[in-house]
Amino acid sequence: MTRFLSGAVLGAVALVMILFLPTLALRVVACAVAALAAHEYLQLVGAPAGLLLVVVAACWLVSGGSAATVLAVQLMALGAAAWLVLSKRDPVQTATAAAFAAIYVGVPLGLLVALHARYGSRVTLLLIATVVVSDTAQYYTGRTFGRRPLAPAISPKKTIEGALGGVVFGIAFVVLAGARTLPAVSMPQLAALGGVAVVLGICGDLFESQIKRQAGVKDSGTLIPGHGGVLDRIDALLFVAPLFALYLGVFA
Q1: Residue range 6-27: average pLDDT?
Q2: Which end of the chain has the lower number of beta carbons within 10 A, N or C?
Q3: Do 96 and 47 form a contact (C-beta atoms < 8 A)?
Q4: Could you tell me the residue ranges of all domains in the chain?
C-alpha cells in the first residue's frame, strides 16, 4: 500500500508540473531531481559529492535546448575525469565512473525539459507514460507468466516473459497514443519507437541494478517510501529520454 500511495502521489505531482509549470520552472525542477539522483549515483560508485555541480550544470545547459550544449557537457565530463585523475590521484576507472554522472543523469533529465519546450506536454507525457506502461506490464506479466530469468546475476526477479510483455504492451501503447500525439509519424515508425524504448528501458533498469549490486545495496536511497531512491524511479527513463530526443529530431 505504501508503494502504491507514494507512486500515486509522485505521478500526480509530475503530471501537474508537466501540464502547468513554465519552462524555466521545469528546468529548476529537473536540476533538483538531477542533484538527488546524482547524489545517490556518486555514493554508489564512491565518487566525490562535489561532482553534483557538474551534473546540475549539464542538466541546466541541455534543458536550454541548444545543440552546442552536447559539446559543453562532454568537456565538463572530460574535465571532471581529468581533475580526479591528475589532482585527486583517483584510479581512471573511478574517475570515469564519476564523470559519467553528467551524461548518465544530467543529460537525459535536461532533454526531458528541452523536449517539453519544443514539442509540448503531450510528447513529454507520451515518453514518461511509455516507461510507466512498460514497467507495469513487465511486472504483471512477469508475475503471471514468468518462468525463465532474464538476467539472474543482476536482477533475479526479472523474467524473459515479463520483458516480452513489456515490449508488447509498450509497442501497443506508443502506436495508439502516438497516433494522436505524433500524427505525422507512421505506424511502423511508432511501433519501432515503442519496441526500442522498452528494450532501452529494461537496459536502464538492469544497468542501475548492476551498479547497486556492485555497491552491495538493495536500493539507491530511501527518499521515496516503498520505492527506494530517486535513481531507482528514473533508471529506465534515463535511457529512454535520449532515444525520444533523437527519434523526434529525425522523424518529427
Answers
A1: 90
A2: N
A3: no
A4: 1-119, 121-252
